[in-house]
Amino acid sequence: MVDEFQALVDNGTWHLVPRPHGANVVTEKWIFKHKFHSDGSLSRHKARWVVWGFFRALFGILLAAWH
Fold first, then answer.
1. pTM of the full predicted structure?
2. Predicted confidence (pLDDT) per residue in 28-54, tens digit
3. What is the Cα Rg of the chain in Å?
4. Which of 6, 8, 41, 60 has the largest count of CB atoms under 10 Å?
5. Cα atoms found within 13 Å of the Cα of residue 6, Cβ hemisphere only
6. What mean pLDDT is predicted for residues 3-31?
7. Using a CB cutoff of 8 Å and minimum separation of 24, what contacts does 45-49 make?
């Protein structure tokens, strides 16, 4: 997970900043999956970071309004 985080920082995907006073923190979690070849052998490990809760619902509304 540390390598994944460092890759995001190194690529300039986003920047970690201090939380502003009085701001709410968005809930998040890591999702881990295993990808397999057709013969059942392990192909690779995948990880993604997802944000959930109010922000995701708001983003869905904004996304629906965009179309």
1. 0.38
2. 888 889 999 999 999 999 988 887 655
3. 16
4. 8
5. 3
6. 82
7. 47/1, 47/4, 49/4
- Quick one: which of 27, 30, 21 has its CA closest to 49? 30
Looking at residue 38, its pLDDT comes to: 94
Q: Which whole-number Å values give the CA distances from 67 to 30, 49, 58, 60, 62, in the listed order? A: 29, 25, 15, 11, 9
Please tell me the chain's helix, strand, coil percentages from 3-state DSSP, rounded to the nearest 5: 35, 30, 35
Whose structure tokens read 């993604």?
48
Query: Which spans in 1-67 are helix H?
Result: 2-10, 54-66
Residues in the chain: 67
Between CA 65 and CA 67 the distance in angstroms is 6
